[in-house]
Amino acid sequence: MSDAPNDDVRAFWEQEPCGTGERVTGPLAPGTRAWFEAVEENRYAKEPFIHGLAQFTRHRGKRILEVGVGAGTDHLQWARAGAECHGVDLTDAAIETTRQRLALYGLTSQLQRVDAETLPFADGTFDLVWSWGVIHHAAHPARIIAEIHRVLNPRGEFRGMMYKRWSASVLKEWLKHAALKGKPWRTLSDVMAHHFESPGTKAYTLAEIRHLFAGFARVDAWPILTPYDRQLLPGWLGRLLPEWLGIYIAIRATKAP
To answer: If you write DSSP's letter for every residue of 48-62 in order, what string do you get?
Structure first.
């Protein structure tokens, strides 16, 4: 899998935090309440399963770290739920966007722009680490996962999502950039690294995810079929897609048995 430098990854996401493009927000002025609410509505309309995994309201009083805060939509839910919030991101754009988002509701968080491959927290600091669709963009995801394990307290857990390689979304990209370009020898990983979001994006099998999280006592991982997998397909075909062709792998990993 390609390991694009994190400087390249950062440069890509500094341009626009994930999920905040004009296709989502239209003509709304960035940073306004209406703009943020459009971002939130789009996120949870397309990915309602986030709530089922995060269970935001069950973590009141818990110390939470979000790795990759993006536009601050999930971070707002943790803050609303009464968690003690900490957030890191590789970009200044995400940190500032999240800070603005929380401020609209009179909420705060300890936010820092850092590379999550080296987290600035003591061992055993957090009850929960959350990261939705972020780790697979890093140059060295295994380093981030090791850091997450380190900063969790002995009974802490990780919840989040990473991309799945054998999925409808990735196969569509392979058809577009490999098969239809007369380059069928290109691998799914190569296509992901060069054509899917930021440089070096990675995707995994379920077995590879379990290996990455092998330092945890228990790892549950399962695929989620998304609207992105069905996109551009005839309605009847989209309805026939099995769950295992979903691009998302939901992950719940506990540090202790």
So the answer is: THHHHHH-GGGGTT-
- H or E element that contains 24: helix 22-25
Helix (H, G, I), strand (E, B) or coil at 171: helix
Yes or no: say if 230 and 142 are a contact pair by the CB < 8 Å rule.
Answer: no
CB 134 within 8 A of CB 91: no
pTM of the model: 0.95
For 21: left if phi > 0, alpha if psi spans -120 to 50, otherwise beta; the answer is beta
Are the beta carbons of 88 and 66 closer than 8 angstroms? yes
Question: CATH number of the domain at 6-165+200-254, out of 3.40.50.1820, 3.40.50.150, 3.40.50.2000, 3.90.1150.100?
Answer: 3.40.50.150
Q: Where are the domains of the chain?
A: 6-165+200-254
Burial class (CB in 10 A: 0-12, 13-18, 19+), 55: exposed
pLDDT averaged per 10 residues, the chain (length 257): 76 95 95 96 97 97 98 98 98 98 96 97 98 97 98 98 98 97 97 96 98 98 97 92 97 94
